[in-house]
Amino acid sequence: MNIKFFTISSLVLFVFTLSAAQIIAQVANNKQSIKTESLQKDAQFSSVAYDELLKVKKKLTTDSYSSLYKKVIQEADTALLKGTYSVMQKTQTPASGDKHDYYSIGPYWWPDPAKPDGLPWIRKDGKVNPLTREGSTDFETKQKMFNSTESLALAYFFSNKKQYATKALELIQVWFVNEDTKMNPNLNFAQGVPGENAGRGIGIIEFADVTKVLTAIEILELNQQMDAKTSQALRKWFTDYAYWLQTSENGVFEKNTKNNHGTHYDTQLIEILLFLNKTAEAKQILEAVKTERIAKQIQSNGAQPLELARTKALSYSTMNLRGFTELAVLGKKLGVDLWNYKAANGASIINAFEFLKPYAKGEKKWDYKQIADEEKAIKNLKELFAMAGSEFNKEEYCQIGRDKKVSLHSLLHECN
User: Fold this and answer.
1) Nearest Cα to 157, choosing from 69, 227, 235, 74?
2) Which of 2, 64, 197, 221 gives a 20 to 30 Å CA spacing to 408?
3) Distance CA 105, CA 110 (A)
């Protein structure tokens, strides 16, 4: 009921059916609804298109969305039953001696069998060492936190059930805000190599999906499910982290890498800058993507040579192209057309898609190295075509992605 139509006669009628407390609650809810609707008119999220989320919300019962919606709810319900996540939960301590510092080990590094103590570890590209993915580090804990927070926030947005928002807020506060459990705003000790170094710039890629948390924060704030103190603390944290990304030795190193690490450094930093309303700075980085990333990482035929050189070339080509696609989506928001950009050497994002298209369609078998996970890589590639088809209105790409398995992300980038 809209409060402006709450007449005296209707109030008298309601007295017979509602208690005084219920009437007060009804009035409060109406006021809250009006306030939320007013805010939503001008809503703008850093990465996800808010108006598209609203369109999806209206279609949740249709065949193309219902199974995806159920999956979001299932994941959120599971998250409700779990605890919280913190960098303090790891069993190892980084070289700083402070468990508040994020810590992980490079996934492709193994103890050297020729050395009594195994040090320094040696690299086996594409072969993940299970020791780097267990509770001794922060990597898996971070993944659970990011994924759970996103699922809970989306479940709240689509269902309006407050328990999801409450849990998402708790996860965010424990990881970023609470003094006893929060992470320090740096990745000084990410992807270290035992016996070699305490942390490396390439570890920054482990926060490439931080947009999941940023979107969750924005959903909670828009719907008044986050207190002002928490909002302020989060902006302080991300301001400090963005500064670290741009000025630290590890951050500068990652910025200057020429493969997928450089691409995902840009996506991460731009999304954070947009979250902090630093649009001019974000736009400047997007403009540089044309000559510093596209022209240097993609050939005229669409091949990505630095990714094709890897032992899991399909996985890395897809991952890097996802980063470029995310940059193109961000560019669309800020008036920087990366999708249609063609470098002087003929390189373009579209050409990269065209290079991978016959593999996604099953017309060609992957003829570069892929030592593991080829089926998963093809699935991820099809999902990427669906995302690009949705964002840039390419029906052919949507068609390629339509036979993909259910994925949480496809609810955000679903082809019509």
Assistant:
1) 69
2) 221
3) 10
C-beta atoms surrounding 148 within 10 Å: 23
Contact 89, 181 (CB under 8 A): no
Which residue's entry shows tokens 């450089």?
262
pTM of the model: 0.88
Phi then psi for residue 168, to 5 deg, are -60, -45
Distance between CA atoms of residues 3 and 199, nearest Å: 57
Amino acid at 238: F
| 195 CB-contact burial (10 Å; exposed 0-12 / middle 13-18 / buried 19+) | middle
C-alpha closest to that of 383 among 394, 362, 397, 395: 397
Beta bridge partners, 109, equal: 123
Angle between helices 374-392 and 349-360 (to 10 degrees): 130
pLDDT tens for residues 312-354?
A: 999 999 999 999 999 999 999 999 999 999 999 999 999 999 9
Q: Which tokens in the block code for residue 411? A: 């609810």
The full length of the chain comes to 416
For the stretch 254-287, pLDDT in tens is 999 999 999 999 999 999 999 999 999 999 999 9
Q: Which long-range contacts (CB under 8 A, 24 or more apart) does 122-125 make?
A: 125/310, 125/311
d(CA 253, CA 267): 16
DSSP state of 135: T
Q: CA 11 from chain center: how many Å? A: 47
Q: Is the previous residue joined to 107 through a cis bond, with omega within 30 degrees of 0?
A: no
